[in-house]
Amino acid sequence: MKRFVIIGNGPAANSAAEAIRKQDQASSVTMFSREFQGHYYTPALPELVSGEKTAEKLIVHGPQWYERLGIELRLDCPVQDADPERRLVITAEGEEVGYDALLLATGGNAFVPPIPGTGDLKVIPGVFTLRTMADAERIKAAAGQGRRVVLIGGGLLGLEAGNGLLRIGAHVEVVEVFPRLLPRQTDSLGAKLLQGLLETMGFAFHLGRKTERIARTPDGLEVLLDNGTSLAADMILISAGVRPELELAGKLGLAVDKAVLVDDRMRTSLADVYAAGDVCEHRGRYYGIWPAAVEQGRVAGTNMAGGSAEYAGTVPSNSLKVAGIALTAFGEIDAEGRHQALVFQGQANGLYRKVVHNQGRMLGGIFLGDEQGARTALTVMRRDQILSPEIRALFPAESA
Ligand SMILES: Cc1cc2nc3c(=O)[nH]c(=O)nc-3n(C[C@H](O)[C@H](O)[C@H](O)COP(=O)(O)OP(=O)(O)OC[C@H]3O[C@@H](n4cnc5c(N)ncnc54)[C@H](O)[C@@H]3O)c2cc1C
C-alpha cells in the first residue's frame, strides 16, 4: 500500500486525488490545505464579494466527496517543511507525515508590486488582494454602498472584482499601467469597445498610469499616480497578477524557473515529487488558469498512482465574467498585427470578432458581445484549427 500526500486543495490537488483513486482504491491519500473549507470555485469569488453567491454555493467538493473517495483532508493544516531524504512533510504543528509520492499543488498568491506604502498588507487596514475565499469575505465586509474603491490593476480578475464592488454600490476607479485594458486578451480596438461598455456600467479608468505611492490620510487612503493625480479611497484592491507559492518547492530543493519545472508527466526534478497547477511551469509556460490546473492534476495523479499520462498543454482561453459583457479571448490575439486576421465589427453596441490565422490555420481570437461565436471558434480551435465555413460565416465578406 502506497502513501500519497497532496499539498493543496485547489483544482490541481482535487483532480490529482480523483485520478489517483481511479487507479488505486487501497492506498492512503492525504491532502493538506492551509484554508478552512473544502474545494471551492475560485473564479466565482467576485460573486461572493457582490453577494450574488454565498460561500456554500462556491463549494465544489464538500466533506462527503473526500469521505466517499477515502481521502483524508486536513483543513487549516499548513505544511511548513519537507524532508525529501526521509520522504516526509512536516505540518506547522510539527507533525511528520511520510509519503511514497508527493504532489505539490500549492497554487499561487496575489502579487503585490513594490509600491511604497503597501508594506505588509496584513497591517494596512483598507488594502486588499483577492485570491482566497477568506480574502473575498474580508473585501465584502469592508465594501458597501458609496465606498470609494481604487483598483490597482485592470486585468480580468481586477475587472471582475471591480464589477462585484460596483454591484454593491461602491465607486470604482481602476488604475492600469498599460495604456489599454486587458492587453493579453484584447487588441486596441477590442479594448476601446470594452472600455466604453465598462464606463457605461460605472467604472472610471486611469490608463497608462503607474501607482507611485499609497498613503493614509485623515480621510482614509490616498493613491498617488505618476502624473500627480491623487485618488481618495476608502479601500484599495490590488490586482496585479499571481506568483507561484514556492516556499515548499525551495525547501525541497526543486528546480525552479518562473515556477516549479515539470516534465510532460508532471514530474519535478526530485524523484517521486510531482507538481501541478499554478505552482508549476510546463515547457516554459506558466498558465495560471483553472482548466490547466485540472488537466495537470489529472496527469500528475495518474502517473503518481502507476498509470501513464502526459500533459501536452492547454489552449488558454479567458472570459470576462461581467454581467452584460461577453468577452472571450483565446490563443494568439495578435495585438501587434503580425499575422493575418478576419475582423468584424458589428453595428450592435460593442460587437467585435477577430480570428487570427496563418494561411487558414487558426491561431487564436477575440470575441466581444458574441458568446455563441466564441464557442464556435473555440471548438474549432481545439478541434483542428481549420478556418471552416462556419468560422468564415462569422465574418461577412465586406468586413473581412
Ligand atoms: C478571483 C479569481 C478569479 C479567477 N478566475 C479565473 C477564471 O475565470 N478562469 C480561470 O481559468 N482561472 C481563474 N482564476 C485562476 C484559477 O483559480 C487558478 O488558476 C486555480 O485555482 C489554480 O489552481 P491550483 O490548484 O494550482 O491552486 P489554488 O487554487 O491556488 O490552490 C492552492 C491550494 O494550496 C493550498 N496551500 C498552499 N500552500 C500550502 C501549504 N504550505 N500547506 C497547505 N496548503 C497549502 C491552498 O490553501 C489552496 O488550497 C481565478 C483566480 C482568482 C483568484
Helical residue percent?
25-40%
Computed over alpha carbons, the radius of gyration is: 22 Å
| Beta-strand segment tally | 27
Distance, first to last CA: 61 Å
Q: Order of strands in the sheet with the most strands?
A: 5-2-1-9-21
Low-confidence stretches: none
Q: Describe the sheet with the most strands.
A: 5 strands, parallel
Characterise the protein shown here:
- With 400 residues, the protein is of the alpha/beta class.
- It folds into 3 domains: 3-109 and 243-304, FAD/NAD(P)-binding domain; 121-238, FAD/NAD(P)-binding domain, CATH 3.50.50; 324-399, Enolase-like, domain 1, CATH 3.30.390.30.
- Helices cover 26% and strands 30% of the residues.
- It has 11 helices and 27 strands.
- It has helices spanning 11-23, 45-50, 55-58, 63-68, 133-142, 156-167, 188-201, 247-252, 290-304, 371-383, 389-392; strands at 3-7, 28-32, 39-40, 59-61, 71-74, 79-83, 88-91, 96-98, 101-104, 108-110, 127-128, 148-152, 171-176, 204-207, 211-217, 220-225, 230-233, 235-238, 242-244, 260-262, 273-275, 280-282, 317-322, 325-331, 340-345, 352-358, 361-368.
- The strands form 8 sheets. It has a 5-stranded parallel beta sheet with strand order 5-2-1-9-21. It has a 5-stranded parallel beta sheet with strand order 11-18-12-13-14, covered by helices on one side.
- Helix 1 packs parallel to helix 9.
- The longest helix has 15 residues, at 290-304.
- The radius of gyration is 22 Å and the shape is globular.
- The N and C termini lie far apart (61 Å).
- The relative contact order is 0.14.
- The structure holds flavin-adenine dinucleotide.
